[in-house]
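Q: My labmate handed me this sequence with no annotations at all. I'd like to see what the chain might look like in three dimensions before we decide whether it's worth expressing. Could you predict it?
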Amino acid sequence: MMRYALSLLMAMMVFVTMAHAQERSGPLRIEITEGVIEPLPYAAPIFVAETAAAAQHAQNITQVIATDLSGTGLFREIPASAHIGRITNFTSPVQFADWKAINAQALIVGSVSAESDGRLTVRFRLYDVFAGQEIGQGLQLQGTADGWRRMAHKVADQVYSRLTGEDPYFDSRVVFVAESGPKDNRQKQLAIMDYDGANLSYLTDSSSIVLAPRFSPGDNQVLYTSYESGFPKIYLLDVASAGRRVLETQQGTMSFAPRFAPDGRTVVFSLTAGGNTDLYAMDIASGQTTRLTSAPSIETAPSFSPDGSQIVFESDRSGLPQLYVMPAGGGEAQRISFGQGRYGTPVWSPRGDLISFTKQSKGRFHIGVMRTDGSEERLLTASFLDEGPTWAPNGRVIMFTRESQGAQGQARLYSVDITGRNLRQVPLDIGASDPSWSGLQK
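A: Here is what I predict for the chain of 442 residues:
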């Protein structure tokens, strides 16, 4: 049974042009235009351990930073075996000639100290090697030893933003459906992880089927659909306490496909009553419900624009599932998808410029993007089953579910840049589907 209605993606092509270092006259910056990606070479020597207890943390933090950056496809780490220079003191002047010799265009220098009370202090600086100058200001972070990965992501976010001009996304989390067991008896439970698959934990048990978790704007709550009562109902779960409550609707109805409004106070969802499925909005505090659509068709998978003024959704009112946009309070809907095939699960980019979706066409599934008016549609992936996109906080990367062919096909999470490049599997040892990406952690 398909997890979503299907759709298609369009994307900008991104070209990372790096002038040859000796010829570069301006500041070091990845310039985004159309073309082919040439990763920027950088060096990240292991951060200096300023206390003996910090040695392992220094190595681990450096590795996570390098993995974050190289994982974007925009950066290429120069291995430590090629380094000529050595960084043994965080405050000592950098010998830029040593790093020029290996063509490192950016250099990340850092230090880690560990206190007896378990506190860590991480410092870093970013340098333009060929200009021989620091990019931005140095950064100092403090936290607990248990939070070392977050500090590493924060450093990588700073490097990424300073070199690309884009908003960061590494210090974020993903809530999803963890899957186990054979295909004819899949066990499903809600789980949460860092964006890179680390720090996995479970929010529910596997006693009932759960679907489509969605983060609140503050990332402290999750909406999801559960079948524990025998038919679908929407639950609101607190991430910190795992406490939850059902969002009650009319008796005898089925509610599913929920999503928060940008203000976090309203939920839009599908409700089936009397054989008809329409979109409704609910005020979370009062429980007051407003009907948004009224058509003899299936309306589902709603998603708000970032400013909360519009909703994109999926409807089969034209005969096949297509994408439509309407005012957030309901009203006339405009169709925006016109390609061949079936479209579904639309999600508005946090930047407001694109809508991602799933598309089924000619026996293949795709993740795609299009402009909010339906123009410039472009497919980013193609496989036996790709579905359910979710956006990174900066609107440049999409995570989705991919399922392999065959009776024992296991769902996995993948990510892809909006160029359609840098397709990567999220490193998880379990089956996973229905991802929802948080904003940056506070």
